# Entry
Amino acid sequence: MPEGLLRRAQLIAPFGVGAMVVVRNGTSLITAGIDHWYKREDISEADDKSEFRIDEWRLARSLEVDHFRQPPDFRKANKGDGVPNAYLTVPFLRFPQWHFCASCNLLQKFPLTKRGKVKCPECESKKKTKYTPHMAQVPIIAMCDRGHIQDFPWREWVHRSANPICDKPVRLVGTGSATLGGLSVRCDCGAKRSLEGITEGDVNRTRLSKTLMADDNTEVDDEKKGFCCQGKRPWLGTEDSEPCSCQLRGTLRSATNVYYAQTRSAIYLQRGNNSELVSLLEEPPLSTLIQPLSQAGLSITPEFLRGQHTLLLKNFSNEEIKDALCTILSPNDIKANTNIVEGDDPETSFRREEFNVLRTERNEENLKIRAINISQYESNIAQYFSRIMLVDKLKETRALTGFTRIFPETDQPLPVLQSLLWRQSLQQETWLPAYIVYGEGIFIEFNENRLRQWLKIHGAEITRRVQPLVARYERIQEERHLRQRQITPRFILLHTFAHLLMNRLTFECGYSSAALRERLYISENPVAPMAGVLIYTANGDSEGTMGGLVRMGKPSNFEPVVRSSLEAASWCSADPVCMEVGARGGQGPDSCNLAACHSCALVPETACEEFNRFLDRGVVIGDIYNKSMGFFT
# Structure
């Protein structure tokens, strides 16, 4: 394949397994499945895969995998250098497979493994010009909402048949128009058809599937079977099909909805009583010694480890090492179940563990938190919060759990999403690609009494305001088979406040708009409610590691930022349209926002957990007609 450079983090998102990327010479490739990662061009295996191993016990337990692995980095080595894991590459495949000639318009299909530029066979045989032109990959592909992707059915489309008999050459002809209607497919047998409308339709009815076998401007009857998805998975290196009855949708290969990485992340929390020793055993060089022995079923003693790495373990007793070994070799740690609250769903329970830790002071290897007495802040700001914690250091693990197409969400179960990453579903050990980033942040917990008082006084009015948003999402959720979620005034308030604060921090302390992220901790459980927001930096580089964000959480720095964010939210440059549009159909992605647009409350999609949905300035500062309705009055 043509060579291209990608950062390791980009192989999780946005160029993870099944995603398309264009390399420097213009070739479009698709990232191959993880079956053949950690191999060289000559198919030889990596010297030591344990070097790439990541242990995040909570995330592994939640995703039901053994561990995680970082994507391999490419290393050059001279003979005798002894560089381990040299010349490892990540495999990519050529996609789309169909190419067209700009000279004669011929459409030609090539293998997934075809390398380099390809020349037009027809022009080369006829020698029309002195130099045979290179063929370019077609700009159009087809996909379904279950993750399958395939070449556009050129022959089937032009012949209006799911099984065309004609095998004469087909051509892609342009008329100069900038729309798809200006492109047509023509066969040397005389058949021709425009590409107009191939991207139209919804999840239950697409024009490509319903009209492929019909005349123009007509559709196949609902009783007749249309042309459905063929279940193609080219990123796994095969042209075989699997059963799929979903509607097929045509699209440009550069469209943003061709690939949505499904990722899960976790803030690292301490295991055991000796966090320093546990962290030492979970990282190289000790981890590269422990894991192979553990997988082989061999016993690991403190004396053996001390003999191999005397200097690293000189400050710890054999008993401490033994306890730490028991901790890291027990994936279902008993301590992990101490935060379970009756009524919590799995995701809420997962977040509750982090919520309970972030509320306390910590001084661990991978998590350092300081508490600031709330009385040190100005009373007119402090009255809305119960805790403000400064997180000087945190460690986050982000894992790729699968991907979707067309829509950013899906109701498919986790095992189905994970199966998209593998060609061979049965593995000796289960793992997912992931990477680690370090950052800092501010954890803000809202005053629960103040929240309940606000909901008691303005609850009915706020419910009436957000009910259209909830109804719109429920309708879309049913149509697109999205996951169910509880959208409440508490959720919309904390989510919108996090966006307003992030937008203001980009002005106050110079962070780029994508440098900050939100992490929401919300629960309506009356016994153990949660109302917390973590704003943090975790970009995988040096930005945000010098304490700039933490400094903004200190008294005399925090209050002006909050005050400025609320003042900016009180009037958007698009008001009064922005404030009033929510009652007239909503705005933003899926029309699931009320008073929130790019001029006031939206942030980069990578910074938001909810894809920039479920936002409303009205619940934060009130609307034009009733300012007292907002939480911050």
User: Anything to note?
Assistant: Residues 216-225, 332-337 have pLDDT under 50 and may be disordered. The first strand starts at residue 20 and ends at 22.
